[in-house]
């Protein structure tokens, strides 16, 4: 029993597109009943002060190291982290060219893999 190649092609394409359609419907159903989706809960949160506003208000006396540390802690706290989550605060410093070369090297490696 030999079938023509066109008949085999039509059967195979029908099966492939039927499976793709079934997978699409399955993905749509999973999206509707997703148990990992965060539910929106209405809660009263205080309005967060933008970090730019905080840094602009203290930019004049930024020479004080303690003030700088307080600004950094306030910026991190505005993102919802507690002060116990801060491990270390280090100045970037150093040669700008060396740091730029390091960043470029890491980005090139990420593109390669």
Q: Could you explain the architecture of this structure?
A:
With 113 residues, this protein is mostly helical. It has helices at 5-32, 51-57, 65-78, 96-112. Helix content is 58%, strand content 0%. The longest helix has 28 residues, at 5-32.
Relevant terms:
single chain; 113 residues; mainly alpha; 4 helices
Sheet with the most strands, sense and barrel status:
none
Number of helices: 4
**What coarse outline follows from CA principal-axis ratios?**
elongated
The first-to-last residue Cα distance is 50 Å
Structural class: mainly alpha
Level of helix content?
55-70%
Q: Give me the Rg, rounded.
A: 28 Å
Q: Would you count the extended β strands for me?
A: 0
Q: Averaging pLDDT over every residue, what do you get?
A: 77
SSE order, one letter for each helix or strand: HHHH
Low-pLDDT segments, ≥5 res: 51-59
- Range of strand content: under 5%
In brief:
The protein is an all-alpha fold. Helix content is 58%, strand content 0%. It is built from 4 helices and no strands.
Topology:
Elements: H1 5-32, H2 51-57, H3 65-78, H4 96-112
């Amino acid at each position: 029993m030999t079938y023509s190649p066109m008949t085999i092609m039509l059967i195979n394409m029908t099966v492939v597109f039927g499976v793709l359609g079934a997978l699409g419907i399955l993905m749509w159903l999973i999206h509707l009943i997703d148990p990992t989706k965060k539910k929106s809960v209405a809660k009263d949160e205080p309005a967060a002060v933008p970090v730019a506003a905080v840094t602009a208000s203290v930019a004049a006396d930024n020479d004080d190291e303690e003030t700088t540390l307080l600004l950094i802690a306030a910026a991190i706290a505005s993102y919802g982290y507690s002060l116990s989550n801060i491990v270390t605060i280090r100045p970037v410093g150093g040669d700008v060219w060396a740091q730029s070369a390091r960043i470029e090297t890491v980005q090139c490696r990420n593109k390669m893999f």
